[in-house]
Fold this protein.
Amino acid sequence: MDKEIQKIGIIGAGIMGTGIAQIAIQSQHDVYLYDTQYVAVQNAQSRLHDTFNRLVSKQKITEIQMNDALAYLHIVENIEELQQCDLVIEAIVEKLESKQAVMRQLESIVSESTILASNTSSLSITAIAAECKHPERIVGYHFFNPVPLMKVVEVIQGLRTESNIIDRLITLTQKMGHRPVRTKDTPGFIINHAGRAYGTEALKILSENVTTIEEIDDILKGTLGFKMGPFELLDLTGLDVSHPVMESIYYQYYQEPRYRPNVLTQQMLVGKKLGKKTSEGFYRYIDQQKQISTVESKILTDSPPMTQVWLSTHFDEDKQQLEKYLSSKNITVEKNHKPSSDALILIASYGEDATHSAIRLNVNPEHVVCIDMLSGFQQCRTLMPSLITQQQYIDAVQIIFTEPDVKTHVIEESVGFIAQRVLAMVVNLACDIAQQKIATVDDINAAVKLGLGYPYGPIEWGDVIGREKILLTLEHMLAITGDPRYRPSPWLQRRCKLNLSLTHH
């Protein structure tokens, strides 16, 4: 039977090391905190005292609980004092050579039964262990910042890591009050891997001049419920962090098109427009507050200049929802196979631009406006005219769908609406992660929800929104663009063809 992990050594007294120490001592594990700079350990000890005092003042814990937790904290001056630890976690600089050196040094200090873990966010565990005498005890143990609030930990199995070590760390993680997710040693693991779709597709949309930065953020928050828009998130993280990660994963996967970075972020990185930390990124910041550009909206008349609408939808639920809404506005939906000569042509399209939708239906593109029905249209409505849609039809459809407390956006032609493109890529990438058995479906969903704050796990989100809608969006985008980044995952295709849930094992 494997010995229970009680004594935990932590190397690196920065933000991550201190955060790991906090949850470990709160769960009554002895922590031995070491840093090459002893003053850093002393500062970390001081920060932990301040943190616990704040928790007491906010009545999150009692003073007795604080004193009990702090009694488990031991600051050490020499790395040799980690000799008796059951587990040692390194949380040092993200450089392969540095982590390899620490592991080799630890092997000469600790017993052969001690687990050696790396808190790396992107480096290969197999590579870190490559020069060790006992690579089978090297494991990835990836926490997220801030550790006490980010309740997920990736437990990463290197090529030689023993399975029982993974099981022991999963048990330890649960004791510390976090959700463990088991993952293979692949670039980006689960969370940084799955998160590639959100920012990269938003950047692709922006580079196509579909609409503004502000509108892309607003649409994704309003339509899909993301807590932050992709450009707000990139500004918060900083392009000096985000862009190298984009490039790293792209090249580690041998230039897989799904992960393709964007030239725009490279230019901004060179130009030092890094985001909030430099007061300018995709947005400008004054005193750390985002500045929003004000654009005067076109004032439209109170009633639509036409009351005849011809409607085309892929899905019956979209048709029913739109017909009910139009009826409430006293607008007649034409039932003929083809629209009348002056009707507004409203198309609920997926993965198409308005031009391709008009051609597919053989209707007049001058009368066409497409509408995004991916997640309904109660909170946010996005409309897309063709290049030659007459202004009277654009005005008419805006009037029809503009209501108090519901934002309506009119975007330039795009192969798929903004929400469709981003969510299709999020779901599709997660399906590929499942296809590769990098992690289980449950762990992928839990990791992304907890680690990235998405409203749903990416695979379950496909079921919630409609897996057929996701597949249709990808198929249309692939057919129109020929870009392999949009090719549907076999995992997604099989389950759609067999009418199975995406979470079906």
Summary: The radius of gyration is 26 Å.
